[in-house]
Design goal:
Elements: E1 2-3, E2 15-19, E3 22-27, E4 32-33, E5 37-41, E6 48-51, E7 70-79, E8 82-92, E9 99-107, E10 118-119, E11 124-131, E12 137-143, E13 156-162, E14 167-168, E15 173-176, E16 185-192, E17 195-202, E18 210-216, E19 224-225, E20 232-233, E21 243-252, E22 258-265, E23 289-298, E24 301-304, E25 313-314, E26 330-332, E27 344-346, E28 355-356, E29 364-367, E30 379-384, E31 389-398, E32 405-414, E33 417-426, E34 431-440, E35 443-447, E36 454-456, E37 463-470, E38 473-479, E39 486-493, H1 499-502, E40 512-519, E41 526-536
Antiparallel strand pairs: 1-25, 2-3, 3-5, 4-27, 5-6, 7-8, 8-9, 9-10, 11-12, 12-13, 13-14, 13-15, 16-17, 17-18, 18-19, 18-20, 21-22, 22-23, 23-24, 26-41, 27-30, 28-29, 29-41, 30-40, 31-37, 31-41, 32-33, 32-40, 33-34, 34-35, 34-36, 37-38, 38-39
The protein binds (Z)-L-Arabinonhydroximo-1,4-lactone.
Family: Belongs to the glycosyl hydrolase 43 family.
Protein name: Beta-xylosidase
Keywords: Glycosidase, Hydrolase
């Protein structure tokens, strides 16, 4: 059996392609650096991280990008001996016209080198590339506006793309206006048996999400919507363990089997607090994840085997198993000179400015930079929450010299929603202190200040910190010897770092647990992290 999700934790907008016997899925990374995560499989069951193509400031500079801006919906195809990767770098969200820049990069091998970004049309988002049977290439996307993206303004546009000059033909054709589900986006077109099959995401990216399929004999339409209804959705199944199914892409195996990869989320439910549950279905701190389902073709239409909803298990593909030995858990002793692929940073790469893996070998040294609310340069190295129950732990040495310097562990959704378990310097007590801060929709609450301090004794060189996530709630603990732990009385709500709780104008990421060091004084400080462990429960 294949267990879903195949990519756990925040991995939305999956785009899948095959090159020979190898399968690749590209997922959105938003404000997290490096941009785009590409996973590799040979059996559609076992996946490993294979590439993160946008891995330098030359390739991607997201300083100043808004929360949930940055890399939206990468699209990967394989044709003419090349991988073609399209993506949008979203620069503005809160505006009548959302605004982003679209690029294409190509590579012969998935590991790269990838070409420099080739600018594409900026008029829309969720671009994809059709390598048409006649040899021509077409750029397909959902335009922004006219008012804003939340507008149920439905249009899928095609422009021819000349890959020898890298120019888009200015002639735009509207090929599809969507169904009543609205929010028509994420177009992918496939050639099959004389038809063009157009997959789009509809219904918006929350619980109403879905995949619509339509077909036409002519690329430019008219497209006929499938008589079978949504190809993928869980809107009709409120109690299904996996919700929000939508935004999908098809792949055919070398043996002629068909599959669809799409995004979906596993909510935590609120049995006693129905009013809290969005649309009665809970909230999803793990963000939108990647799942896979099996496709059968009936009378020329694709159908998901077993129904349109996402399933926790599906039968395996007829492909030889290839287990990469990737663990659900993650331990880092920081012995490598390169940051492990489980980590991401915010908006910019992990560089000398942010920290180092060589200054104190065997440690992740983070240099104090901007605070957690910054849109610019933070020393935050974080990994996805991928289970409803897990524990993450670190061991840290830190000697702050003023009250504006701090370091520790955080659970982060975006600049306005996070918690931080930190060590700083209390200038009245002349001591290092342990504290907790919660920011919820930009409102901060402070714990263990003003008479309620937890002092770190001067002779203590290392502080251990731990976060235990248990369904609806999570708890921080600390230790001065790595054996005896003290749990903070104050616990936090896991569901407060989810798209669903934060909501509003569109939030699209997921919860991370991170290591962080900040220095608002700019005097200079650093924290040394000796180890980090993520353990599913
Ligand atoms: C994605 C688009 C969407 O590009 O959200 O709501 C964007 N719609 O399809 C981010 O996942």
């Amino acid at each position: 059996m294949i267990s879903n999700p195949i990519l756990k934790g925040f991995h939305p907008d999956p785009s899948v392609c095959r090159s020979g016997e190898d399968y690749y899925i590209a997922t959105s990374t938003f404000e997290w650096f490096p941009g785009v995560r590409i996973f590799h499989s040979k059996d559609l069951k076992n996946w490993r991280l294979a590439a993160t193509p946008l891995d330098s400031v030359e390739m991607l500079d997201m300083r100043g990008n808004p929360d949930s801006g940055g890399i939206w919906a990468p699209n990967i195809t394989y044709a003419d001996g090349l991988f073609w990767l399209l993506y949008t770098d979203v620069k503005v969200i809160d505006a009548p016209w959302k605004n982003g820049r679209n690029f294409l990069v190509t590579a012969e091998n998935i590991e790269g080198p990838w070409s420099s970004p080739i600018p594409m049309g900026n008029g829309g988002f969720d671009p994809s590339l059709l390598h048409n049977e006649d040899g021509k290439k077409y750029y397909v996307y959902r335009p922004w506006g006219p008012r804003n993206h939340s507008d149920p303004y439905n249009k899928i546009v095609v422009q021819e793309f000349d890959a020898t000059t890298n120019k888009l033909n200015k002639k735009r054709t509207n090929i599809f206006e969507g169904t009543d589900l609205k929010y028509t986006e994420a177009p992918n077109i496939y050639n099959k048996d004389g038809y063009y099959y157009l997959l789009t995401a509809e219904g918006g990216t929350s619980f109403e999400h879905s995949v619509t399929v339509a077909r036409s004999k002519d690329l430019f339409g008219p497209y006929q919507v499938s008589p079978h209804g949504s190809l993928v959705t869980t809107w009709h199944k409120p109690t299904n363990a996996i919700q929000k199914a939508g935004h999908g892409a098809l792949v055919e195996t070398q043996n002629g089997e068909w599959f669809i990869t799409y995004l979906a989320s596993r909510p935590i439910r609120f049995p006693d607090r129905p009013l809290l549950a969005r649309r009665g279905r809970g909230m999803c701190p793990l963000g939108r994840e990647t799942v896979i389902d099996r496709i059968e073709w009936v009378d020329g239409w694709p159908l998901v085997v077993g129904g349109a909803h996402a399933k926790l298990e599906i039968p395996e593909a007829n492909l030889p198993e290839c287990d990469w030995g990737v663990s659900e858990n993650f331990t880092d002793n920081f012995d490598n000179h390169k940051l492990d692929g489980n980590w991401q940073t915010l908006r910019i790469p992990f560089s000398d400015k942010l920290g180092s893996l060589t200054e104190n070998p065997g440690h992740l040294r983070l240099h104090g930079n901007d605070s957690l609310v910054s849109l610019f340069e933070q020393s935050t190295v974080a990994t996805r929450w991928r289970h409803h129950d897990f524990s993450a732990q670190t061991k840290m040495a830190f000697s702050p010299e003023n009250f504006q310097q701090s370091a520790g562990m955080c659970c982060y959704y975006n600049t306005s929603n996070w918690t931080y378990c930190l060590v700083d310097f209390d200038e009245k007590l002349n001591k290092r202190c342990l504290r907790l801060i919660q920011v919820d929709h930009q409102i901060a609450t402070f714990h263990h200040y003003d008479g309620n301090e937890i002092i770190v004794p001067d002779e203590i060189a290392h502080v251990w910190m731990k976060v235990d996530v248990k369904g609806l709630d999570y708890y921080y603990s600390y230790s001065f010897d790595g054996k005896n732990w003290v749990q903070f009385e104050k616990s936090f709500e896991s569901w407060k770092i989810s798209d669903d709780y934060i909501d509003g104008r569109g939030f699209f990421t997921g919860a991370f647990v991170g290591l962080h060091c900040e220095d608002i004084s700019s005097d200079g400080c650093f924290a040394d992290f000796e180890s980090f462990t993520y353990l599913a429960k």
